[in-house]
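Late entry, written up from scratch paper. The run itself happened at the end of the previous shift, but nothing got recorded in the book at the time, so transcribing now.
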Amino acid sequence: MSDDLEIIQSDGMIFCYIVRRNFRPSHTTFITPPEARQQVGFIVYPADSTITRHSHKALERHLIGMSEVLVVRTGHCQIEVYDDGHQLVAVRDLYENDVVLMVGGGHGFKIIEDTVLLEIKQGPYLGVNDKEVF
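Output as recorded:
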């Protein structure tokens, strides 16, 4: 992996992807595999291209678990990544325009500077039933 794209894993299990602000693929690049429950990638188009008008079919999907994407809009924070047994796997600093995709295990954050995070996750949100605090 490059310094601009890191996959945090332990014992063959992927828990987190970190895409640094400097990651600039020259062609369409997905960081998640096709079977992942949330697809995250960069779609690269040359100038004067078009994206054909389309809509998405109302297909039923069965998902177990939840993944979430955070984009650091401003600030500086640290992510703590945990495995499924709540053991710390990694701590990483996140800065403006870094993107983190959490796909398994657990996570926590330490806010170093005033920080604004854009969160993208699967819904519907179920409130306190969505989280296990440890």
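The chain has one domain: 5-45+60-125.
(Scratch paper discarded after transcription.)
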